[in-house]
Amino acid sequence: QVQLVESGGGLVQAGGSLRLSCAASGNIFKINTMGWYRQAPGKQRELVAAITDSRSTNYADSVKGRFTISRDNAKNTVYLQMNNLKPDDTAVYYCNVRIRDSNWYEYAYWGQGTQVTVAS
Q: What's the Cα-to-Cα distance from 13 to each of 16, 17, 36, 85, 116, rounded to whole Å?
């Protein structure tokens, strides 16, 4: 079993910054892609940013230039630095981690979600 623990959400004024963290623990053979998704009320969950094991990154157009995803493989942790936050960034943020086992099967795991609220 794999557990994901998220932290770092909260309430911030527009223009402010937050840093989210997501630490994976448990039966981990190899972590492939790590990412962050978000879901606002009444909307579908959407990809915010992702980072591969080779550190290639991908961002939603709405956050490019403001958010930065990074990972620390020694700590099995992924981070999302969010700068210049806007009210439209308000959502529950979920980390997603894809883990490969010794038989080359890949499994996706989700964090519990952390609320980010940006006040105008």
A: 6, 8, 21, 8, 11
Backbone angles phi, psi at 63, to 5 degrees: -115, -5
Short-list 91, 114, 110, 83, CA closest to 6: 114
pLDDT tens column, 10-48: 999 999 999 999 999 998 999 999 999 999 999 999 999
DSSP 41-101: TTS--EEEEEE-TT--EEE-GGGTTTEEEEEEGGGTEEEEEE-S--GGG-EEEEEEEEEE-
Burial class (CB in 10 A: 0-12, 13-18, 19+), 95: buried
Pairing of strands 10-13, 2-7: unpaired
